[in-house]
Every structure is written in C-alpha cells, then in structure tokens.
Amino acid sequence: MVVNQNQFYVSPEDYLAGERQSPIKHEYRRGKIYARVGVSLPHVIIASNLGALLGNYLLDNDCLVLNSDIKIRLEEANCYYYPDLVVTYDEWDLSSNEDFILYPFLIIEILSPSTANFDRGDKFADYQTATSLQEYVLVSQSEMSIECFRKNEQGIWISQTYSGGEEVNFASVDFNCQIELIYRKVHGIEFING
After folding, report:
1. How far is CA 109 from the centre of its chain?
2. Nearest-CA neighbor of 12 among 34, 29, 25, 24?
3. pTM of the predicted protein model
4. Residue 36 φ then ψ, to 5°
C-alpha cells in the first residue's frame, strides 16, 4: 500500500463514495486511504489458479468465492481491504448488492515483497476482528510456500506451512490439492522442499 503522509482523516462514507468513482483501488484503514500497489504476473497466475480451483470445488455449495474486486468491511477495526481471494457463507453477503462483504470465512492473500510484513502483521490483526473468519492463508509468490492460519476451538490462531511436494489443506472449506496446482504455470518459482 502507498500512503500520502500528509493525509487527513477521511470518513468511511467519504471513502466509499470516492472509491465508487476512482479508476484505481484503494484500501481504507482508520481514516487513512492507501492506493493498492500493482501486482506481478506470478501474483495474477496464482490468484487465477486458486480462484479456479476453489470456485470449482465449492461450485455447488451455498457460498461465494470472490476475487480482489470486492472489499471486506471490518467494522470493529474501521477498515476496508481488498483480499486476493475470499470465501463467504453468510446469508447477508450472499444476498447483498453492496460493494463490500461483512462476513469472510476464508481469506487468501498473495504476498509480495512490499506487502508481506503488513499482510502478516497489522492486516492479519485487523482481519482477526471479523468473528466469522476461520482461516487466513498467505501464499508466497517467490517460493513454493503457503502458510495457513486456522482458528481453533479456543479461538487461538494455529499456523501450518506447506511446501513443494505437499498437499495443501484449507480446513475451513475442506479443500485439498497438491501445492504444484496452485503454482501451475508460474515460471521461476523456487522449489522449497518441506
């Protein structure tokens, strides 16, 4: 994300109104607006692969698999983010005509060098304010590595990392596939063997 350091407070309502008119996407965090950074070809390929795999797997389920064109509204954190992929089962989200969803169940972010620390830190903390969220997935685009954070019965987030040759499990939606399918057609990826 890129921010203007001289920026003043913007209300969520003004952000939404501006975002509906803007030719580029911005995220909103506690009164500040951040331009979304551009993405690389590996990022786009990974997002497309994941969208197709999850979309096909969940096709007959009563849920939505959405790409980075939809925002998540995090009321408690006072944020709006565009995740790379999100799955929601909530009736409000399924029937809404808003330009955001409220109840993410699974969120997937594809890491880039400029966003990795934020995605692992403050953004993850903000996402955790969504009580509906069951799993948060971070996908590297520089090496074959996927880290899944899952909320256990005690509400504690437990991490599991997958690497080359392993089967990835998104437990929240009972999805399994070989990690190589997620990275299919991504050139120059570093093969990390678990």
Report:
1. 4
2. 29
3. 0.92
4. -75, 135
